[in-house]
Amino acid sequence: MADTAPNSxxxxxxxxxLYGFTDLPSVHARGAVVVTHGKGPxxxxxHGREYLDANSGLWNMVAGFDHPGLTETAKAQYDRLPGYxxxxxxxxxxxxxxxxxxxxxxxxxKGRVFYTxxxxxxxxxxxxxxxxxxxxEGKPQRRKILTRWNGYHGVTAVSASMTGKPYNSVFGxxxxxxxxxxCPHYWRFGQPGETEAQFTARLxxxxxxxxxxxxxxxxxxxxxxPVMGAGGVIPPSSGYFHAVVxxxxxxxxxxxxxEVICGFGRTGNTWxxxxxxxxxDAIISSKNLTAGYFPMGAVILGDELARxxxxxxxxxxxFPHGFTASGHPVGCAIALKAIDVVMNEGLAQNVRELxxxxxxxLARLAEHPNxxxxxxKGFMGALEAVRDKAxxxxxxxxxxxxxxxxxxxxxxxxxxxxxxxSIVLCPPFIITREQMDEMFxxxxxxxxxxx
Length: 451
Ligand code: PLP
Prior knowledge:
- The chain is of the alpha/beta class and 451 residues long.
- The protein folds into two domains: 33-66 and 346-450, Aspartate Aminotransferase, domain 1; 70-344, Aspartate Aminotransferase, domain 2 (3-Layer(aba) Sandwich).
- Helix content is 41%, strand content 16%.
- The chain contains 16 helices and 15 strands.
- The chain has helices spanning 9-16, 24-30, 56-59, 68-80, 93-105, 119-136, 157-162, 186-189, 196-214, 240-250, 272-275, 303-316, 329-344, 347-365, 401-412, 433-450; strands at residues 35-39, 42-45, 50-53, 111-116, 144-148, 178-181, 219-224, 255-258, 282-285, 297-302, 371-377, 380-385, 414-415, 417-419, 422-425.
- A hairpin with a 2-residue loop joins β11 (371-377) and β12.
- The two termini are 20 Å apart.
- The model has no long low-confidence stretch (mean pLDDT 97).
- The chain binds pyridoxal-5'-phosphate (PLP).
- Pyridoxal-5'-phosphate binds next to α6.
- One of its GO terms (biological process) is biotin biosynthetic process.
- Its cofactor is pyridoxal 5'-phosphate.
- Belongs to the class-III pyridoxal-phosphate-dependent aminotransferase family.
């Protein structure tokens, strides 16, 4: 528990930091876990306590916290060229190589890459690219953005407007023109007597009705996470992408796959769109892109969009957009190494091999009378807490039950994430079978303490 002495790390954290995305009553009562170092999938706090991080940092530390290849790559690149931009006709050699690599590992034959510092900025950039493109092609009215309720796309004013979470109303968001479609979570939103196929068809019909109502010529693009992550790990209802993609194609609406979480192996394939068998027009990447060792995001434009956007830029002799650290050479060097580590050091394979074990552990814990559903894909999993299993009635109360479970997990030495009424597990790709067993044992202990 928290050390409340005025000069403790916990008190200092609480005095000088404005916590984001943190349950403040919990952190005031318990103190922050002030982390000093990490090893493999474990982190250690200022008291020397060890925690198995089943949250992979924030979905991103897939290679663990002390991968020597990644830290050595970073050190070597800091010695060669510690920073640079990608503008004014200059660009680091690492940036050139990473763009080639990203197009090579993408589902696209050809393409172009634009770099940002985060996933939010990558989504924001993609929206600007679409607005730029449509205006250049004589359709400046094509500005509306379609996303889904419960989808998460970031925190900048634009990406937060894309995010379908009620908390954004405290900022007066979403901005006008950001339209949220239904969340494809059959267990929660399926109507009585409705089959999963009928549910999917209903969402597809809602999409088409929305496009017609808004006017296809007013819509700039459709953004979706293959599996909703921060929405509480929601894999789409069966056949979802096969149902919505043809509708979007019919109306010529660009499809953007937000792969910030799913990308680079988390769902068992390199891309989430691969897992769900659709080819988007562009991919948004971040997090796993550098295995969390550098803050970086990327917009990967597929062949057709890349050609059209390039033509639009050529027409005015410039694409007027970018961040000081776009294409940072250290970030790019780390990303090149991270892609190699995930693909060629057995990490992606470990996800595929241990997924059945992961799913079995989730299914076993879902037998608990207060767990209504387990769901997941690859190394993304969630357990949804319910007060009444038969009626799927959620808990209420100011401190959510998932927050209480996550706090109890922290006490047992396990970091996992409360999201809505669910507990989310997204272990690093390096986790072993034994460490996965430890994760489930600790979670089971926490459940016993809460219920
Ligand atoms: N898109 C998705 C799917 C995400 O999960 C996130 C962050 O969790 C973002 C975008 C935003 O990325 P960042 O936090 O790096 O701005």
